[in-house]
Amino acid sequence: MRTITGLYDSYDDARDAVKALEDAGVPSDHISIISNQDGKEDIEGQGNNAAEGAGTGAGIGAVAGGAGGLLTGLGIMAIPGVGPVVAAGWLAATAVGAVAGAVAGGAVGGIVGAMIESGVKEEDAHVYAEGVRRGGAVVAAKVEEDKVAASEAILRSTRSVDLTARRQAYTTEGWSRFDDAADPYTADQIAAERGRYRTDPRV
C-alpha cells in the first residue's frame, strides 16, 4: 500500500476527490479528509451522524453525514496551529494520536506527524499542513501499488494544488515550515488567502 495525497483550496474540491476515489473502488476506510473549519458553510445540510470514522472519543465531535461513504463520518477536531477542522478517516485519527505522542515525547505532532507516519515526506507534510491552516483541505488515501497512478490522476483531475508551486508561493513570503504554535488564520486571512488562488467561484 502507498499513501497518495492532494491539497485543495476548498472543501468542495476535496469532497469531489473523496467521492471520485470511492467511485473508482478505493475503500472509504482507506481515505481521509481534513479541511479547515472556516469552510463549514460548505458542509451545511449534510446531516448529523456520529463521527465514528474520524475517531470518536479522541477530540472529534459529530457534524455531518448523509451522503454515504467516508463523508458520513465527518467530525470536528482541533489541530494546533490550524484550529478547528472538519475531518474523517484514518489520517484524522492518526493526527489525534500524533498530538498526544508529541505532547508526551516531543515528537512532531498533529497533522504533520500523522502525514510523516503515513509515508509522506516531511517537507511535503509541512506544506499540506500550512495549506490547511490557510483555509484549504487535504485528502489522503492508502492504495494498492497497481492503483497508485490512476488514483493520483483522480486527485489531479479534481483540482488538487500543485504542491511545488504552492511551496514556492509560501517561501517567497518568508515561510519555511508549518508552526503548530502559531495562531490559526482568521476568517479574513483565509478569505484573502483563497482570493490569491481563486480560479473557481466555488472556492
From TrEMBL:
Residues 5-71 form the General stress protein 17M-like domain. Pfam families: YflT. InterPro entries: GSP17M-like_dom, Low_temp-induced_all0457. It comes from the Bacteria. This is General stress protein 17M-like domain-containing protein.
